[in-house]
From TrEMBL, chain A:
Family of this protein: Belongs to the binding-protein-dependent transport system permease family. HisMQ subfamily.
UniProt entry tagged with the keyword Chaperone: no
Protein name as it appears in the record: Binding-protein-dependent transport system inner membrane component
Single GO BP term: amino acid transport
CDD domains per the UniProt record, alphabetical: TM_PBP2
InterPro entries: AA_ABC_transptr_permease_3TM, ArtM/GltK/GlnP/TcyL/YhdX-like, MetI-like, MetI-like_sf
Automatic annotation (TrEMBL), chain B:
Organism field: Enhydrobacter aerosaccus
Subcellular location: Cell inner membrane; Cell membrane
Listed transmembrane segments: 25-43, 97-117, 184-205, 217-237, 264-283, 365-386
Protein name: Amino acid ABC transporter membrane protein 1, PAAT family (TC 3.A.1.3.-)
Domain of life from the UniProt record: Bacteria
GO biological process terms on file: amino acid transport
Cited PROSITE patterns: ABC_TM1
UniProtKB/TrEMBL annotation, chain C:
Residues annotated as domain Solute-binding protein family 3/N-terminal: 35-268
Any GO BP annotation: amino acid transport
Family membership noted in the UniProt record: Belongs to the bacterial solute-binding protein 3 family.
SMART domains reported for this sequence: PBPb
InterPro entries documented for this protein: Bact_solute-bind_prot3, Solute-binding_3/MltF_N
PANTHER family: AMINO ACID ABC TRANSPORTER PERMEASE (PTHR30085), AMINO-ACID ABC TRANSPORTER-BINDING PROTEIN YHDW-RELATED (PTHR30085:SF7)
Keyword ATP-binding: no
One Pfam family named in its UniProt record: SBP_bac_3
Protein's name according to its UniProt entry: General L-amino acid transport system substrate-binding protein
Keywords, alphabetical: Signal, Transport
Organism: Enhydrobacter aerosaccus
Signal peptide: 1-23
Statement: the UniProt record of this protein carries the keyword Ubl conjugation: no
């Protein structure tokens, strides 16, 4: 009672506002419930039977598999379903702070492998690629663990990189026979048949995942004292942030074929992914720059005073602290990109919004855009809202330690 | 790369490969070399491909006849005009929708942001619901929804909703009467500009006088009178031409008057509603960041809540609000390019058609990028200037 | 090739870089790959559309099936890539597809400046106008002031502007990239007129009119304002592949002319007519000259049918489109379809 008085009827003006709003809500709600529940049609053979009634949920009932999975072969729809579940599990597990250690690497490796194996059905890895990966992983491990790993571990990393280099060299001169490692539990489904929710999730998740290291490099470059590096990074970041994503997507779909040697083509899906990665990296760089700037100068000076190299200073002192600060804004960037991936429909990729849109095309079911878009909006809302709540929760959690 | 510490003479004997300056330059040379190689690789490929596919290059096509019609144009345009003009028409449309979007989104966003802080719990919750609903769904989805709603829900032109034979609402848009073209109009425009300039001068003078003598000057009212009065005076002096162009159903469509097209409405509505949700959050956090003492002090002075908001809280919050607001304004401008999905002829749409007709993708994508970059940079420059102006001057 | 290998090493591109058709002999790479990659429209009923199981049918699709039957002896070895009018030429030029069977109008500009080769004309088309019957319009000359829905970046858009200018009329365009969105705008009443190739108009009228309206509520106006010869296109460079595509179309026409259909083809193998014997490869030599097996026409007709069958099944009276054959009749029946002889 006291609460009511204080929050709704504290003054005459307030009271009137409350009453008017209540009436408006009641009216809207009664109309909505009537339309969406009471007079709604839940199943019907065609859109014709929906006319004159409320919401035509029968349309969703008819089309939901297409909306979620696009043109993926119909009888194989369980594959994108499990791929989506794998990605969801991956994201949810990564949200748990207890997993923020080596386990994260395992979660992502297993989750990604599962996702792409389910989506592609078969994965063919050529010998060159294996050596290339060995080189990248080996070099990465050796560099990242340089100051913390035991000598044996470092040597193991180096050996891996060495195998990669040797293998690539042998392949290049043709001494090593070409072979392909093929994992093929299911039938192959090419990316042009992918559609719906998995496409949206893959573009957003892997677009940001690959953009992340690039963003870190750009942010560090922007803060660097080296004039050429700094201007390159500033130029790239400002260029990308100054133009709309559409222009990058158009570039990827129309101009990229002109950039490549004749005869070489890149999958349309990958092209969109590259555009998303480039676009995201500039935004991530700015977020990370914010984190770098928030560190007190003493941290940099202390690291310098200890005689750490630039590399040690960055990986051991600066980044661990800066990244911790920027996790919540990074999640907000992810939410932004989860929504922005919908733009790929302009270059003809069937993301979730595009498949929803396509479901309207069927003349048998034409004329119910509201239902489809409400449904799609609801799905997007569930994803984005829960992530934004998580980001808020994390912000207060992470601040607990620094708050006095 | 700890460059802060170099340059002092005792470091002069370091071996060259350990000298941070030399290392820095070598590192830069490598990176620039790599970037240069990538650029060379792309450029040579492109040149090769263009030559092989016999695609023309250069901007000569800009002066060729465009040959396509554009649905909405602020300047006179016909298919007989050049590609350059067609692209200009698109650019103006982009500026129009972005400019209006910025204005409306700011107003609506501020209202919602303030509403979220309302002592009325219900109003605050409704505003919060609005923010969450619009923020968490892609803009493109809103655009599709609004566009489909307008074109499906409104009647055809022959059954248009008719208000006093002046306003006609149909799926062709909202038609309304405008004054018929008259030579006096450009002069009235000049009068308006002069009025605005006069109002600004008056406002400054009034402020100075108040600072010097303490007497307030009603510069807002005087300025408004100047802005409205000057054009009216010119209009009266020109013989008060009051001929109007009325919309009229002729054949397929309305003729005369002017029209706000459904594509434009859907785009503007989408941009404004979506962005205002973000602006509301910025405004809210700006106000929340202020010391509570500010609103208490305002209350102690006897200011009403509205007065406190307008005179004390918002001006201070503005300082915190402007930087993030800048990026929202940039977002509106960039997001206006989604026009292409619902068929509003903005810059990207014009250029896209030009790409198809001429086959010159590279030149045209460059046009898009340069155009958006210059608009973005102008907005940033203006907002930075404004930010400096309102920044707290510490003595 | 060297540059290509550098580029390939640049990243994990290799993971995705899919069956790219390398420059040089297209035919060799198609044979090596074991399937034909065919660029089709994103969905024009009767010409190319995929059902809910993802199976493609239509006149454009039959072209690719026939080429596949000629090369592989199996009409199902085709991979379809739906392309918008904007993407199609880049896709062919860059090797993403081997052949464009995309309702594409053959023009001088495209033949020369875009580095394409158009083969035989599969459909004689022209641009027309679709209007709701209730507008009461009888001729395109009455369209002054109309709002017109049109796809951007096509010859259609230019023809439209030219036609209205020539007749001193004005119009308001509504231009949307995706064909589904244009149709939706037209059927919701946003435009008075929808214009595209008349084949597309019939397809739209037959398959896309949203309930409760029916096809009879819309009429195609009598005026045809342009010539639109639709032909498959291949990359300039591999003449042998271009020949196979061209002669596949001629084979389907020849088959119709000599009364060889998918039903009669087995009986026709026993025919004494020397021309038919040559066509069906009973007298060997023709297929070999073309670089395919001698039974190529038999495979095409058996699996895809002759031109008349394909036409009737997909767009003619046997389909929902009910397009009159008109210009697309054989020359013997007063039409324009006149195949060079197989001999």
């Amino acid at each position: 009672m006291g609460w009511l008085r204080q929050n709704l009827f504290s003054s005459w003006g307030n009271g009137i506002t409350t009453v008017v709003l209540l009436l408006a809500i009641a009216w809207l709600l009664s109309w909505f419930v009537d339309w969406a529940v009471l007079t709604a049609v839940w199943t019907a053979p065609s859109g014709q039977d929906c006319r004159g009634h409320g919401a035509c949920w029968a349309l969703i009932h008819e089309k939901y598999r297409y909306i979620f999975f696009g043109s993926f072969p119909y009888e194989q729809h369980w594959r994108p379903l499990f791929a989506v579940l794998a990605m969801l599990a991956m994201l949810i597990l990564s949200a748990d702070r207890r997993m923020w250690n080596k386990r994260l690497l395992w979660i992502w490796s297993i989750g990604s492998a599962t996702t792409f194996l389910l989506m592609f059905g078969q994965i063919n890895i050529s010998s060159s690629l294996i050596f290339f990966l060995a080189l990248v992983i080996g070099a990465g491990g050796a560099v990242l663990r340089a100051t913390v790993g035991s000598p044996i571990e470092i040597n193991a990393w180096r050996a891996l990189a060495g195998i990669g280099v040797a293998g690539l060299a042998l392949r290049l001169v043709g001494l090593f026979p070409a072979f392909t490692l093929s994992i093929a539990p299911f039938s192959y489904v090419e990316t042009s048949l992918w559609g719906g929710l998995p496409v949206t999730m893959i573009l957003a998740t892997y677009g940001l995942l690959f953009a992340f290291p690039l963003g870190i490099l750009l942010a560090l470059g922007r803060r660097s004292n080296l004039p050429l590096i700094k201007s390159l990074c500033v130029g790239f970041i400002e260029l990308i942030r100054g133009v709309p994503l559409i222009s990058l997507l158009i570039m990827a779909s129309v101009m990229l074929p002109l950039f490549l040697p004749s005869g070489m083509t890149i999958d349309k899906f990958l092209r969109a992914l590259v555009a998303v990665i480039l676009f995201a990296s500039a935004y991530i760089a700015e977020v990370i720059r914010g984190g770098l700037q928030s560190l007190p100068k003493g941290q940099f000076e202390a690291a310098d005073a200890m005689g750490l190299t630039y590399f040690q200073k960055t990986t051991l002192v600066i980044l661990p602290q800066a990244l911790r600060v920027v996790i919540p804004p990074l999640i907000n960037t992810f939410i932004g990109f989860f929504k922005d991936t919908s733009l790929v429909l302009i270059i003809g990729i069937f993301d979730f919004l595009n498949t929803a849109n396509q479901a309207l095309v069927d003349p048998k079911w034409a004329g119910f855009p509201g239902e489809i878009y409400l449904f799609a909006a609801f799905v997007y809302f569930c994803f984005c809202f829960s992530m934004s709540r998580y980001s808020k929760y994390l912000e207060t959690e992470l601040n607990k330690g620094t708050r006095r | 790369m700890a460059v802060e510490s170099i340059g002092s003479p005792q470091h002069a004997k370091i071996a060259p490969w350990n000298d941070p300056v030399i290392r820095g330059w070598v590192f830069q040379a490598v990176v620039v070399g790599l970037v240069g190689f990538l650029a060379w690789f792309l450029v040579t490929n492109t040149v090769e491909n263009l030559a092989r596919q016999k695609i023309a290059s250069g901007y000569a096509y800009l002066s060729h006849e465009a040959g396509f019609e554009i649905g909405d144009s602020m300047i006179s345009y016909s298919p007989a005009n050049t590609y350059a003009r067609a692209i200009l028409v698109g650019m103006l449309n982009t500026l129009k929708v972005a400019g209006l979007g910025i204005i409306f989104a700011t107003i609506l966003g501020t209202l919602i942001g303030v509403g979220r802080l309302s002592p009325n719990w219900l109003l605050a919750k409704i505003c919060e619901g609005y923010v969450e609903a619009f923020r968490n769904v892609p803009l493109l989805l809103w655009l599709f929804l609004f566009y489909k709603m307008i074109s499906e829900a409104f009647p055809g032109p022959r059954q248009a909703l008719n208000v006093l034979n002046a306003l006609f609402l149909s799926n062709r848009g909202l038609y309304f009467p405008v004054p018929a073209a008259d030579p006096i109009h450009p002069w009235m425009g000049l009068g308006l500009l002069a009025g605005i300039a006069g109002a600004v001068v008056l406002h400054r003078w009034g402020k100075q006088r108040q600072a010097a003598t303490g007497k307030p000057f009603p510069s807002i009212w005087a300025g408004a009178a100047l802005i409205v009065g000057l054009p009216i005076l010119i209009w009266l002096a020109g013989g008060a031409p009051h001929h109007m162009s009325w919309p009229e159903l002729k054949g397929f469509n309305f003729v005369g008057g002017t029209v706000i097209q459904p594509e434009f409405t859907a785009l503007l509505l989408g941009l404004v509603l979506y962005t205002s949700a973000f602006i509301a959050e910025i405004v809210r956090s700006g106000i929340l960041a202020l010391n509570k003492g500010q609103s208490e002090a305002a209350a102690a002075l006897g200011l009403s809540r509205a007065q406190a908001m307008r005179l004390v809280l918002l001006p201070q919050a503005l300082r915190l609000i402007v930087p993030p607001m800048t990026s929202q304004y940039l977002n509106i401008t960039k997001n206006s390019s989604l026009a292409i999905a619902i068929g509003y002829p903005d810059l990207v749409a014009s250029v896209n058609v030009t790409i198809n007709q001429t086959g010159q993708a590279i030149e045209n994508v460059l046009i898009i990028m340069v155009a958006y970059l210059s608009v973005s940079l102008s907005i940033s420059a203006f907002m930075n200037w404004y930010n400096k102006r309102i920044a707290l001057r510490e003595r | 090739m060297h540059k290509a290998s550098v580029a390939a090493a640049v990243g994990a591109v290799a993971l995705f870089a899919s069956g790219s058709a390398w420059a040089g002999k297209d035919l060799d790479s198609i044979k090596a790959r074991g399937n034909l990659i065919c660029g089709v429209p994103t969905g024009i009923a009767g010409f190319a559309s995929a059902d809910s199981q993802g199976k493609w049918t239509g006149l454009d699709v039959d072209v690719c099936r026939a080429v596949s039957a000629a090369i592989f002896g199996d009409s199902e070895k085709v991979k379809y890539v739906p392309l918008t009018s904007q993407q199609r030429f880049t896709a062919l030029q860059s090797g993403e597809v081997d052949i464009l069977s995309n309702n594409t109008t053959a023009t001088l500009q495209r033949d020369t400046a875009l580095g394409l080769d158009f083969t035989a004309i599969t459909y004689y088309d022209g641009q027309g106008f679709l209007v709701p019957k209730k507008l009461g319009v009888k001729s395109a000359k009455e369209l002054n002031g109309a709002t017109v829905c049109v796809a951007p970046g096509t010859t259609t858009e230019l023809n439209l502007a030219d036609y209205f200018r020539a007749n001193k009329m004005t119009f308001k365009p509504v231009v949307i990239e995706k064909v589904e969105e244009i149709r939706a705008a037209f059927f919701s009443g946003r435009c008075d007129v929808y214009t595209t190739d008349s084949s597309g108009l019939y397809a739209t009228r037959a398959a896309n009119v949203p309930a409760p309206a029916t096809a009879d509520d819309y009429v195609v106006l009598p005026e045809i304002i342009s010539k639109e010869p639709l032909a498959p296109a291949v990359r300039h460079g591999d003449q042998q592949f271009a020949d196979i595509v061209r002669w596949t179309q001629y084979a389907m026409l020849e088959a119709e002319e000599y009364g060889i259909s998918s039903k009669t083809v087995d009986d026709m193998l026993k025919s004494d007519n020397p021309t038919i014997k040559r066509i069906l490869g009973v007298t060997p030599g023709m297929g070999k000259a073309l670089g395919v097996e001698d039974k190529w026409v038999y495979n095409i007709v058996k699996q895809v049918g002759n031109y008349g069958e394909s036409f009737e099944r997909n767009v003619g009276m046997g389909s929902v489109l009910k397009i009159d054959r008109g210009l697309n009749k054989l020359w013997t029946q007063g039409g324009l379809q006149y195949a060079e002889p197989i001999r």
